[in-house]
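Sanity check. The docking grid for zinc ion depends on where the pocket ends up, so I'm generating a full predicted complex first rather than guessing from homology. Inputs follow.
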Amino acid sequence: MNERILELLKDLVSIDSLTSSEREREAAEYIYNFLEKIPYFKKNPELFGKREIPADPFKRALVYGLVRGKTDKTVILTGHYDVVDSEDYGPARAYAFDIERLPDRLRLLDIDEESKRDIESGEWIFGRGAADMKAGLAVCMEHLREYASNPGEGSLLFLAVPDEESYSVGMRSAVELLLELRRRHALLYRLLIDAEPSRRADGAQVLSVGTGGKCLPVILVQGKKAHIRSCFDGLNPIGVLAKIFFATELSAECIDVYEGEAAPPPTWAFFKDMKEIYDASVPLQAAGYLSALGFYTTPGQILERLCAIARTAFADYLSEMRGHYEDYRAKSAFEIRDFHMRPRVFSFSELKAKCAQEDAAGFPPFYEALYGDIAKKLQAKALNYPQATILAMRELLSFARITSPCAVIGFAPPLYPPMLSERLPGREREAVRCFERLRSDSRELYGIDMVKEYYSVGLSDCSYCAVDSAFAGEDVYSENTPLWGELYNIDFSAIRRLNVPAVLFGPYGKDFHQCTERVSRFDLCERIPELMRRVCAFVFEQ
Ligand SMILES: [Zn+2]
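Predicted complex below; grid placement will be based on this.
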C-alpha cells in the first residue's frame, strides 16, 4: 500500500476548493508546492509552473510539471482540483473535508445500507472530492514524483486544472499551454489520461475512450399580455413553453445511441415566467432551459428540432385556446372573437439579423454595451450564464421592436462537445490499444476485469482534447450563443491541433456528488498506481 498517496489525498480533500470560487486557488497552491519540492524540478525549474488563467475573476491557475524521458513520446496525466458544494452533507457538513473524522459523522445520518457497510469495512475513503477527483489527482501527482526520480523511456506531463464542475475554463485554457509545451519541447502527445473516478459494472471497471457532449438550449417565449378578465385577448407564454417542455423532457425521440450505449434524454433545469412583480395579467414572456446530452447530434440539429417543436407548440396551444373559447362563448353572450395571432420562431442568430435590419448602425454599439453590462453582472454574481442568455434575448427582442408572440431559441454556456478517441483522424486505435493492455494487466495482477465504454456521459475535460470527426456545428453554436466571445469561448482550431486521444481512467469510486461519495482505498493506493505505471510504459514502448 502506498501510504504517501493517502496522505496526499487527505491534504487535497482538506482544501475546500469549491468550484467557481476563489477557494480553488489554494488547491493550485498546494499542488504547485508539491511539485516545487521534487528534486527533479529543483534541478529543472523551467519544466514546471503555474499559469494564471487570463481574465479569470477568481485568478485561478493551471499547474503543470513535465518530466523528460529518453524519447519525446509523452503521456499527459490530468485532473481537476475543484469540487462541488458540500450542502448535501447536512449536519455533517463541517466534516465533509476531513477524511478521518467524516465516517463517524456519516454514521449518524440516514444513509443507505451499502454506504453503511462500506464505512464499517474500512476499505473506503469518504469526503467531498475524495472520489471526484482528488483521488485520481493524488495518484497522478505521486506517479509524477516517482517517475521524476528515475525517468524512463518517455516523457510524462502532469496538468491540474480548475473549474471542471462548472464551465471547464481550466481545460479550455490549458489547450494553449499544452500546444506551447509541445512546441517548446518537441513532444509527441500519445495519450491523455484523465484520472476521473471509475465506476464498476458487474464487478468490471468501466474505462471510457470518449466523452459525451452537452449543450444548454435556452428558449424564450413571448406571448401577448392581457388583463386576466379578458384572457382570450392574450396568449399565455407559460402554456406554449409547457408544450415545448412536454415535447422534450425525457423524450426518447431525442436520444443518441451508439453501439448499444444510449445518451441520457434531455431534461429541463429551469422554467419560469419573466414577471418581476405580480399583477393581474397574462404574463408577456416565459423562459426555460434544458440540458441536451448526446454523442453525435450537432448544436445545429438541436436548434432546428427545437424551432420545429416551438412552431408546433404555438399552433397546438392556439388551437386548444380556440376550443376553450368556443366552450366559453357557449356560456356567455359575447361578440365573436378572431384569433389573428401569427407567432414566429427565431433562432438567436435570426433575431440578431432582425436587429441589424431594424438599425444597422445602432445595433453593434447596442450589443457591445449590453455585452459589457452582462459581463459586470456575471462578475458580481447577479446573474449566471443561462440567466444572462435570457436577458440578452429579451433585450434584442425589444431592440428589434418585436412585441407580437414569438419564440427565441439559442444556447447558454457551457458546451461540452462529444469526443470519441476512436474517431480522431489517424489515431483511431491508440486509446483502444491502451484499454486492451490495461484490461489484461488488471485481470492478470488483480483478477479484476475491465470493460470499454465509448462515451462517458458524466461530462469531462476530455471534450477539449480533440475535435471528433463527427462533430460539426461550432459556427452554428457560436452564432446562436449570446455570450460567445470574451465571456465564453472554445478555441476549436487549437483543440483540433492538439488532437490527442484520451481515456478516463481513475480509482473506483461511488456516489459522486453525494454525501456518501467515496473512493476505494485499494484502488487509490495500489491497483491504479500500478496500472498507471504499466500503461505509461506501454505507450512509451509503442
Ligand atoms: Zn470530476
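Relevant for the grid: The chain has two domains: 3-211+418-465+500-541, 213-416.
Also worth noting: Residues 80, 132-133, 164, 196 surround zinc ion (CB under 6 Å).
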